[in-house]
User: Which sequence fits this backbone?
C-alpha cells in the first residue's frame, strides 16, 4: 500500500463505491513497490511462465495485476468483490486479460482447477473473522490446480512502532488481537494521508490456517531493503532513506501450494 510531508487526513472504511475505487487508485504505495510486489512476482516467476493463468484475488484497480502481466508474461485475470473496482481496472489495466466479480464468496465465471497460480495482496486485512479468511482460502483452493502456488502479501500488524515511507500501521505502540479492527494510514499521491479500518491478522497465524484449508509446504519471507535492490524499479531504493523499512520491514510474503 503505500513519504513525504503529511497533509490532511481522510477517514474511510472499505474501499466501496466509485469514490472508494478512486481513493484506492490514488494510494502512493512506495513501501509496497519496494518490499512487497516485486517479491510476489519473484516467487511466482519460479513456478509459472508465459501463457500460464495467474489470478489476482482482490485485484482492486488493477495496477498490480497489470504489472504482473507485463513482468511475468502470464495471462492475468483480476477478480474482486467490488464492481466499481473492476470497472476502474478495466479502464486502467490494459495488460490484464479479463476481470471477474466475486459474488457470495465465489468467483463468477472461473471453473475449478483453472489457475496455474493465485496472488492475494493486502486482502486478508479486510476480513473481520477467521471464518472469512478460511472462506477466501477455500475459494482460492478451488481455483488452483493441484500443486499450483498461492502467494499472499500481508502487512505485519505488530509493526506499530515505526513511521514507514508510505504507511502507518495501527496506533503507535498498540497491540491488536487477531481480527481486531486496526487503523491503517496510507500515503496518497497528492501527499495527504488516507485512513482505513483494517483487521489485524498476525502473520505467524497464517501457515496453520492455510494448512487447514488444504495447502502444503507453507513458507514465509520478510523482504529487506538490501534484497530489494535487485528487484525494485530502478531508482526506487535511492528515492527515500527507508529508515523504518530498514529497521523493521513491515511486509511478509507467505507462499503455499494447493494440495
Assistant:
Amino acid at each position: 500500500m503505500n513519504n513525504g510531508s503529511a497533509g490532511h487526513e481522510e477517514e474511510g472504511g472499505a474501499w466501496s463505491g466509485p469514490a472508494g475505487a478512486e481513493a484506492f487508485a490514488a494510494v502512493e504505495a512506495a513501501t509496497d513497490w519496494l518490499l512487497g510486489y516485486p517479491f510476489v512476482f519473484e516467487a511466482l516467476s519460479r513456478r509459472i511462465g508465459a501463457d500460464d493463468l495467474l489470478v489476482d484475488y482482490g485485484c482492486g484497480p488493477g495496477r498490480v495485476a497489470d504489472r504482473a502481466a507485463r513482468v511475468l508474461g502470464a495471462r492475468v485475470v483480476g477478480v474482486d468483490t467490488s464492481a466499481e473496482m473492476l470497472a476502474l481496472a478495466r479502464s486502467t489495466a490494459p495488460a490484464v486479460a479479463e476481470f471477474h466479480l466475486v459474488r457470495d464468496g465465489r468467483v463468477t465465471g472461473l471453473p475449478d482447477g483453472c489457475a496455474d497460480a493465485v496472488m492475494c495482496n493486502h486482502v486478508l486485512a479486510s476480513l473481520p473473522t477467521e471464518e472469512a479468511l478460511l472462506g477466501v482460502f477455500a475459494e482460492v483452493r478451488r481455483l488452483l490446480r493441484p500443486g499450483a502456488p498461492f502467494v499472499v502479501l500481508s502487512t505485519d500488524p505488530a509493526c506499530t512502532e515505526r513511521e514507514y515511507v508510505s504507511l502507518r500501521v495501527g496506533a503507535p505502540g498498540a497491540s491488536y488481537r487477531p481480527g481486531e479492527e486496526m487503523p491503517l494510514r496510507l500515503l496518497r499521491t497528492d501527499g495527504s494521508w488516507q485512513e482505513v479500518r483494517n483487521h489485524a491478522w498476525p502473520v505467524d497465524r497464517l501457515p496453520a490456517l492455510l494448512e487447514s484449508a488444504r495447502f502444503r509446504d507453507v513458507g514465509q519471507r520478510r523482504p529487506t531493503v538490501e534484497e530489494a535492490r535487485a528487484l525494485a524499479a530502478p531508482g526506487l531504493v535511492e528515492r527515500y532513506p527507508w529508515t523504518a523499512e530498514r529497521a523493521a520491514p513491515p511486509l511478509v510474503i507467505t507462499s503455499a501450494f494447493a494440495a
In short: Residues 130-143 form the longest helix (14 residues). The chain is about 30% helix and 25% strand. Residues 1-15 have pLDDT under 50 and may be disordered. The chain has one domain: 9-258.
